[in-house]
């Protein structure tokens, strides 16, 4: 640490530049991870709120909530500690107070079921014709008491309250009763056994261990979320970008440290002649890399928080503390791995060159 | 008591018709407080001699002992440890770490041997070499003579048995060169170390106790 730190203090400009590069890369990694996490979240937040273990869909729907049409008769064969019917569709909303048209995701549920979201303003719906909306709709001009028009239907729905984190498939969610949802999706409601819902949500750790009607397939919530349209493709895209940034960091830092080590060959030769071991000198280079990378990551983190505060609300940007810590640690780790190349070159420095030479 | 001894040491580079004998059956030893000069033309084997004496090069035959411990059979790491403990090197130039101040050059030694010598000891050493006022300066801000005095301080700091000086005055003018050699002679006596100075500058020999001449790998005492 002693040598490492003294050299950083001596060549401030040189090392500031390296720290700057690490900070920029860290900043980019953190921003991408924030966008990745934010985008992933707006795909699934409404589902996460259910705090459920499994979902029952039709076997033929291939885990697609939109494609699943489950007869209530079949849905009744699904068991669990807690179960709830869910209807899902999408639509476009207009109203007097709204700025233009707003695309929404529509979730139908029974008002006394366990999947009802927590209301932060107003009250929960109890009757047909009442809806809860995601709080983001409020920012777009919707108020409690507003009548919403849904595209391709003459049905009017009254907003009675707002919920937080009501996002599914990146769209704000309108929560309503099952009959209302059936009317929007199929043109008429049908409360009998021949009526339809999209899915049954199950809260039961042993949910998979049952044999429901033949048309029904029960899957883990995690598997279902992976199949949300676009979800895994988005995540993969971000993961690849972040992964490559890690590799690039290792190379950039590795090359910087290698060049700096080469410049110190003469000094290292003399120190080796004086009896300092390759291990001691390697430790210096590694601890120096650690200091540079850690400072860079901290600065990158600071820039990320500033950016997060300045980003417009529209950007699906969400910082996750655990992700930040993991990515920060990985960045420092790959920087140190990059510096290991230089250890090999330190081992090769011959102390003999210090004698009788330049 | 002999601090450094070379018994029947030879060094051969290459083999067959490219064979070069850099050192031929050399016997050499130094006692505490002795300041020895080795002179000779370039290519005579002076550097090979110093490298072998410093444990940086393994002789083809013969044994090297420092403070009665043989270099033979030691692992690289053990050899480095022995060099660090028993030897002080003073080289032509650039033997100071460029990014450490004069004071830090000494602190580095503390860090390596994981034992801190007192601040007073450091200051006394710098005082005796008349470089105490330079303690916060970097090597680039020092003159050639000052740099060599710092190098001497660095070499003396861990109280080595033997100091090996490789052309320590090469980059200095005559007055500075005399001054550095005088300091080396004085410190050798004061600390009872043994100092071996390789040089081609024959003007500097007045302060030396013994003078050897190296010629084609053969060492001969001339004074």
If you had to describe this structure to a student in words, what would you say it looks like?
- The complex is a heterodimer of chains A (358) and B (223).
- With 358 residues, chain A is an alpha+beta fold.
- Chain A contains ten helices and 13 strands.
- In chain A, strands 3-4-10-6-8-7 form a six-stranded mixed β-barrel.
- In chain A, β7 and β8 form a beta hairpin.
- Chain B has 223 residues and is an alpha/beta fold.
- Chain B has a single domain (33-44, 76-221), classed as P-loop containing nucleotide triphosphate hydrolases (Rossmann fold), CATH 3.40.50.300.
- Helices cover 33% and strands 26% of the residues of chain B.
- Chain B is built from six helices and ten strands; from the N terminus they run βββαββαβαααβαβββ.
- In chain B, β9 and β10 (218-221) form a beta hairpin.
- The longest helix of chain B is centred in the last third of the chain and has 18 residues, at 174-191.
- The A-B interface holds A 2-3, 6-7, 9-11, 266-267, 270-277, 279-280, 351-352, 354-358 and B 46-47, 50-51, 54, 56-57, 77, 80-85, 87, 89, 91-92, 94-95, 97-100, 104, 107-108, 111-112, 138, 166-167, 198.
């Amino acid at each position: 640490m002693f040598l490492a730190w003294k050299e950083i203090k001596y060549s401030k400009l040189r090392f500031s530049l390296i720290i700057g590069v690490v900070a920029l890369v860290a900043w980019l990694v953190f921003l991408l991870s924030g966008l990745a996490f934010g985008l992933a979240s707006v795909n699934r937040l409404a589902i996460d709120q259910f705090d459920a273990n499994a979902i029952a869909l039709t076997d033929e729907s291939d885990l697609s909530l939109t494609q699943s049409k489950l007869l209530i008769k079949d849905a009744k064969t699904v068991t669990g500690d807690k179960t709830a019917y869910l209807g899902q569709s999408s639509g476009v909303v207009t109203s007097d107070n709204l700025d233009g048209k707003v695309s929404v995701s529509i979730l139908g549920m029974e008002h006394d079921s366990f999947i009802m979201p927590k209301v932060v303003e107003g009250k929960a719906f109890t009757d047909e014709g009442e809806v809860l909306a995601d709080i983001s709709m409020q920012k777009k001009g919707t108020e409690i008491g507003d009548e919403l028009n849904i595209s391709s239907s003459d049905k009017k729905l009254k907003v009675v309250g707002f919920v937080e984190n009501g996002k599914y498939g990146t769209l704000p969610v309108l929560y309503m009763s099952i009959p209302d949802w059936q009317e929007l999706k199929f043109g008429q409601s049908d409360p009998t056994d021949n009526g339809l819902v999209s899915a049954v949500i199950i809260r039961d750790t042993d949910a998979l261990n049952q044999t429901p009607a033949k048309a029904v397939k029960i899957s883990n919530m995690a598997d279902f979320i992976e199949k949300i349209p676009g979800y895994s493709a988005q995540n993969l895209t971000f993961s690849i970008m972040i992964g490559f940034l890690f590799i690039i960091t290792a190379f950039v830092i590795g090359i910087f440290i290698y060049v700096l080590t080469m410049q110190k060959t003469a000094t290292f030769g003399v120190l080796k002649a004086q009896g300092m071991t390759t291990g001691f000198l390697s430790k210096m280079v590694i601890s120096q890399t650690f200091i540079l990378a850690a400072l860079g990551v901290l600065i990158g983190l600071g820039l990320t928080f500033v950016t997060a505060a300045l980003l417009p609300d529209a950007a699906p940007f969400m910082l996750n503390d655990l992700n930040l810590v993991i990515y920060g640690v990985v960045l420092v780790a790959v920087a140190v791995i990059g510096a290991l190349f230089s250890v090999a070159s330190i081992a090769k420095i011959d102390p003999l060159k210090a004698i009788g030479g330049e | 008591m002999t601090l450094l001894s070379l018994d029947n040491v030879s060094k051969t580079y290459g083999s067959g018709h490219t064979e070069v004998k850099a050192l031929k059956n050399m016997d050499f030893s130094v006692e505490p407080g002795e300041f020895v000069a080795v002179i000779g033309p370039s290519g005579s084997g002076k550097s090979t001699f110093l490298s072998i004496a410093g444990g940086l090069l393994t002789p083809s035959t013969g044994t090297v002992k420092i403070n009665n411990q043989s270099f033979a059979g030691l692992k690289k790491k053990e050899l480095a440890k022995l060099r660090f403990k028993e030897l002080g090197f003073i080289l032509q130039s650039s033997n100071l770490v460029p990014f450490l101040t004069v004071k830090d050059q000494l602190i580095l030694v503390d860090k390596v041997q994981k034992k801190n010598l007192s601040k007073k000891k450091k200051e006394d050493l710098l005082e005796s070499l008349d470089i105490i006022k330079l303690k916060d300066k970097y090597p680039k801000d020092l003159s050639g003579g000052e740099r060599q005095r710092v190098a001497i301080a660095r070499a003396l700091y861990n109280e080595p048995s033997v100091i090996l000086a490789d052309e320590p005055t090469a980059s200095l003018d005559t007055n500075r060169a005399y001054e550095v050699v005088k300091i080396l002679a004085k410190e050798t006596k004061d600390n009872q170390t043994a100092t071996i100075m390789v040089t081609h500058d024959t003007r500097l020999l007045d302060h030396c106790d013994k003078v050897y001449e190296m010629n084609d790998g053969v060492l001969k005492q001339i004074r």
